[in-house]
Amino acid sequence: MADSIFKVAVSVPADFMDILMDAIDEVIDPIYPGYRRCFSISNVVGTWIPVEGSDPYIGETDTISRVEEKRIEFAVRDYDLPQVLHVIDNIHPYEEPVVDVIPMNAWRSYL
């Protein structure tokens, strides 16, 4: 039986992008034969308002923040997912990073 595959997407300040990708690559088995450190990178703008009691990496309480970020996306096997989420939690500078975990089917499974 094949392993389940998930797509993980997370937005991060540009200066943490390579640090995070390198750390994730260290804890996962490659998905694509013959390749490793396979990520998609998009430019995005994140926005939020820190509220009283938060400790934002960027921004001030009760003030709108808009920050250019890099959105990294990658595929990961189910058995590597806990380690990946642990890496994101430990390295990402935000208190509450936005992390999407989406079940997916490999496109070759339809051939």
Kindly describe this structure.
This protein is an alpha+beta fold. It is built from two helices and four strands; from the N terminus they run E-H-E-E-H-E. It has helices at 14-27, 81-91, and strands at residues 5-12, 40-48, 65-77, 99-104. A four-stranded antiparallel sheet has the order 2-3-1-4. Helix 1 (14-27) runs antiparallel to helix 2 (81-91).
Describe the structure concisely.
This protein is an alpha+beta fold.
Order the strands across the largest sheet as they lie in space.
2-3-1-4
Q: What is the global morphology?
A: elongated
Strand content: 25-35%
> Under CATH, the topology is which?
Alpha-Beta Plaits
Average pLDDT, rounded to a whole number, is: 94
Rounded to an integer in angstroms, the radius of gyration calculated over CA atoms is 16 Å
Number of helices: 2
What is the top-level CATH class?
A: Alpha Beta
Biggest sheet overview: 4 strands, antiparallel
As for the number of domains, it is 1
Q: Ends: how far apart?
A: 17 Å
Please state the second-level CATH architecture.
2-Layer Sandwich
Q: What would you call the structural class?
A: alpha+beta
Contiguous low-pLDDT stretches (5 residues minimum) are none
Number of strands: 4
Order of helices and strands: EHEEHE
Helix content: 10-25%
